[in-house]
Amino acid sequence: MVPDRRSAFRSSVLLACVIICSNVLCPVGAYLYNNRYAGDQIFRITPSNDEDVQVLKNILGHMKVDFWQPNSVALICQNATVDVHVKHNDTRGLHARLKQQHLDYRVFISNLQKEIEKQTGYGSSRKRRSESQYDYEVYHSLEEIQRWMFEVNRTNSDLVDMFSIGKSYEGRPLYVLQVGKRSRHQKKAMWIDCGVHAREWIGPAFCQWFVKEAINSYPHDSVMRRLLNQLNFYIMPVFNVDGYHFSWTTDRFWRKTRSKNHRFHCRGVDANRNWKVKWCEEGASSHPCDDTYCGPYPESEPEVKAVAKFLRKHRKRVKSYISIHAYAQMLLYPYSYKYATIPNFNCVESAAHDAVTALYSAYGVRYRYGPASTTLYVSSGSSIDWAYRHGISYAFAFELRDTGHFGFLLPESLINPTCTETLRAVKAIASGLLKKCETDKDRFPYI
Predict the structure, then answer these.
(1) For residue 113, what are the CA distances in angstroms to 190, 329, 338, 409?
(2) Which active-site residues does the annotation give?
(3) Among candidates 48, 50, 43, which has minimal Cα distance to 97?
(4) Any idea of the CA torsion for 222, 147, 142, 114, to the nearest 10 degrees?
(5) Which ranges of 137-270 would DSSP assign to H, the alpha helix?
(6) CA dihedral sign, ordered 344, 326, 428, 276
(7) How many Å apart are CA 212 and CA 363, to the nearest integer?
(8) Up-side HSE of residue 398: CA atoms within 13 Å toward CB?
(9) What is the mean pLDDT of residues 412-427?
């Protein structure tokens, strides 16, 4: 090869290496989202009376904003904080309107793009590429999570079984891991799903953490060993596979599934508003473009339908249902859709108390707990109401860290403590399933 050609060849190889390395090392937010969130801000507004509530509803109702807390303008109420994501072109106008109306507010994220880049920063060249060095303290793409599931199943066949319960709208398999010691006898079971809302990345991180801890601690942790010997855990690391993939590749704050409404050209349904119990009433939207859109009919989403079918089939064995969400630091149980006390309130309240006490023991993080309707807000079509209605007497939804400082952008540095404390809470609930608690069988589980 002549010198000029050698030089050109070296240059082309070097350029290729630079491109490959930059693709691997570049933070998810900066590389995949093309700087689309630069200058966007997150406002925290607190209406102090009914008049403030109406003024704020009027302001935000006429703007295109992304609600973080609560889920929609209809759920705004006095003395409850409202966190909204505002595009950079609209921030100046909102500042002016809020000051003019003397509404109490602050900006807790002043440049959303920078916070996204921090969330998965340059430490993220990481151990993603090899399952043998799988890093549980970083966020992973759907493809990485599914490869991890296959590897965990292959290397831990005595404790783990992997299967699919169906396919998503876009044709992706809906994988579930069954974790527990094999037994000839039919065992009680607990269902745990994560990633129902695509932007809540800490959920899938916890489901992976739970499986890792269950496998690794089985030989030496007497509590975990007892649980895995007497219970089966059905773990669904990513419920909303299409939406989660979309949040990685296109829109970090995508919430819904990816089904399409041809009339409105708005894609996706809130999978936690698509269940049959009191479908599409208060706390949900019938408009396809809203984040809380309940869908065209109950169980319209293939993901919801597949999980519902599986739980119906195993309803005699599944004694507890847990859905992992973010953010607010709460442990919620039925009812979501109305202000009423469930028939086995004492049992469930005691289990929730034990869970948050166990969680607090790790790092002193406090969680509120109680019925979803009074602790958070009224919402229809939720999965915990559906699970409870179908005989799963211990149905819970976790809202993990934090209370709004990071919102949906919980840094990777907080994955370990968040998952560690949540694991304690889940173990407490699971341990309670092995005990007896009296229930009013004449009333339960009818709603």
Answers:
(1) 38, 25, 38, 11
(2) 399
(3) 43
(4) 80
(5) 142-155, 202-217, 222-230, 241-249
(6) positive
(7) 20
(8) 32
(9) 97
